[in-house]
């Protein structure tokens, strides 16, 4: 499932397992920055939910899969803004509700995909909430959106979220980790090896914090790399990214991404924390001098 899509492998595996074991939650939120990936992932899941194969789903060859792929399966419904930028209003959700009460035509399941779910206005979301509170057994609802932040808390609590691309993962580093990561990388760009060692010292006793800080570093380094490749700043870029681009070449940025990843791997292997900190410090300083 999702082999040809740019879906985070961990998310893909989690969804696939749930589908195969027939325990996919009745309401899911697919969150990700790429619209085509969201759409394709929702279609793939919908297809798997109606697939008639006794083996791995979606099989892609049964009559139901073929109809799903041709957008002609009678039990797959798409709800979307009437035009780009328009809200999805309560009437659309009332129609969904009426359709959800009918028995499926062609199998055991009806699947409703609400595309651009963040465009549901509050009344629409409240109407959807009623359906999520008492879903009919044959109903699956897929909400796809760039970010679930625009959805009501009450909706979020009744649906299972899946981050399709790991940059939008819900385990994004917290503010403390982001700030520490910025300080670290800023020091790496402008300071000495000793400054870097001092900046790392608060992490000496906290394995979890160090790991989230390294993940945050990777996101910042990735932005700097994207900007370097694009040759211009992205929107809302912060000054750490700017400093990194100014001081380091693309090759050095890539090497730093690799360095943070090896430290993350070492952390997950439970290697000695002080040793990893020292490795990071000398590795990163070496890359800057290279
Ligand atoms: Zn099939």
Overview features:
single chain, 9% strand, Zinc Finger, Delta Prime, domain 3, alpha/beta, Rossmann fold, five-stranded parallel beta sheet, binds zinc ion
Secondary structure layout plus pairing:
Blueprint: H1 9-20, E1 27-31, H2 35-50, H3 63-69, E2 76-79, H4 90-100, E3 110-114, H5 122-133, E4 139-145, H6 153-156, E5 160-163, H7 175-190, H8 193-200, H9 207-230, H10 239-247, H11 250-268, H12 273-289
Parallel strand pairs: 1-4, 1-5, 2-3, 3-4
The structure holds zinc ion.
How would you describe what is shown here?
By secondary structure, the chain is an alpha/beta fold. It has 2 domains: 9-168, Rossmann fold (3-Layer(aba) Sandwich); 175-289, Zinc Finger, Delta Prime, domain 3, CATH 1.20.272. It is built from 12 helices and 5 strands. The chain has a 5-stranded parallel beta sheet with strand order 2-3-4-1-5, sandwiched between helices. Helix 2 packs antiparallel against helix 3 (63-69), helix 9 (207-230) packs antiparallel against helix 11 and helix 11 (250-268) runs antiparallel to helix 12 (273-289). The longest helix is centred in the C-terminal third of the chain and has 24 residues, at 207-230. The chain is elongated.
């Amino acid at each position: 499932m999702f082999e040809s899509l740019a879906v985070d492998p961990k998310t893909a595996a989690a969804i696939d397992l749930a589908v195969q074991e027939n325990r996919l939650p009745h309401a899911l939120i697919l969150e990700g920055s790429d619209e085509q990936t969201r759409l394709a992932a929702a279609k793939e899941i919908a297809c798997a939910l109606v697939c008639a194969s006794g083996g791995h789903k979606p099989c892609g060859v049964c009559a139901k899969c073929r109809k799903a792929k041709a957008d002609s399966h009678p039990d797959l419904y798409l709800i979307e803004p009437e035009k780009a930028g328009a809200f999805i209003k309560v009437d659309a959700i009332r129609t969904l509700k009426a359709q959800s009460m009918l028995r499926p035509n062609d199998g055991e399941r009806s699947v409703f995909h609400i595309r651009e779910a963040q465009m549901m206005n509050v009344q629409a979301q409240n109407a959807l909430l009623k359906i999520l509170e008492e879903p009919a057994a044959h109903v699956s609802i897929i909400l796809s959106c760039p970010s679930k932040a625009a959805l009501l808390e009450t909706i979020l609590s009744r649906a299972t979220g899946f981050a399709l691309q790991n940059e939008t993962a819900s385990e994004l580093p917290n503010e403390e980790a982001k700030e520490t990561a910025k300080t670290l990388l800023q020091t790496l760009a402008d300071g000495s090896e000793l400054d870097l060692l001092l900046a790392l010292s608060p992490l000496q006793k906290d394995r979890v914090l160090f790991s989230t800080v390294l993940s945050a570093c990777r996101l910042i380094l990735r932005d700097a790399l994207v900007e370097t490749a694009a040759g211009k700043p992205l929107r809302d870029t912060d000054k750490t990214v700017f400093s990194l681009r100014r001081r380091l070449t693309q090759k050095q940025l890539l090497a730093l991404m690799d360095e943070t990843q090896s430290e993350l791997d070492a952390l997950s292997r439970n290697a000695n924390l002080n040793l990893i900190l020292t490795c990071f410090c000398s590795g990163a300083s070496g890359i800057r001098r290279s």
